[in-house]
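Let us work through a complete example step by step.
Step 1: write down the sequence.
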Amino acid sequence: MKKSIRVFAPATVANVVCGYDVLGFAVNEPGDEVIMRLTDKPGVSLLKITGDEGRLPLDPEKNTVSAIAKQYLEHIGQPDAGIEIELYKKMPIGSGLGSSSASTVAGLYAINALFDNPLSSKDLVPFAMKGEELACGYGHADNVAPALLGGFVLIRSYSPLDIISLPFPADLHAAIVYPEVDVPTKDARQMIRSKVFLKDAVTQWGNVGGLISGLFMSDYGLIGRSMTDILVEPTRSILIPDFDKLRVLAMEAGAIGFGISGSGPSVFALTRDAETAKNITNKLQAHLNKIAINSLAFVSDVNKKGPIILD
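Step 2: predict the structure and record it as tokens.
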């Protein structure tokens, strides 16, 4: 049994435009790191957090990494085990890229490895969902499932939980830009309509089915024309500066499709290659700079592995 471990867990793009709360994929950059150690002192201790500018709680009952580690220990019958945790935030908080998910998943993967992996990655998903509930009030899986499993993931059902890993084109890349404006996940969720017209729901179902079919068939045209959201994006896009202009710029630069990552404000485009993705991020950042908004950009193919042990 290992006594200490360092784990990286990836950021994710949730919803993938039309798949609100049921679709997501993992990327290689950015992500979070957790160092976890077994100790002789009973209980879970959160020793330090870096990269969060003091925004995250050090209280082990309130931080998602430590709180979920405690739930995990109770589940495997080791409630008195001693654990020390260090969290290294390597990605922006509140970016729409699954920041809380990456932290929680890194911690879960680490503690599971320290105890010789009694649970599978799929078995860890409900614990990670509890972390999302603690972080933003709702235990969705479209961030945590791809962060744990890698690749594209469909959550076919939440009750019972039914998670399916999807195939996707090998050369698919994501161009991600995070405008540094504040869009809290809780606030973004509260803006969404609780009821929709049946005709709109039918359109959305068709797009979700089309997107999944496009991934299976590596049909870029079908993927692109299915990346349309008429239920959530029209509301959430209001919070993102010049969203419609950013879409135009991305599509003109060769994007397959464009949309909001998670609850925003990050936006993303899918492309056929890294060069196109890089060109898109350059154009989007240049436009945001013109309107006096700082931004961060990431270019990545789809992360196929999920979390990795660094040492």
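Step 3: interpret the result. The two ends are 14 Å apart (CA to CA).
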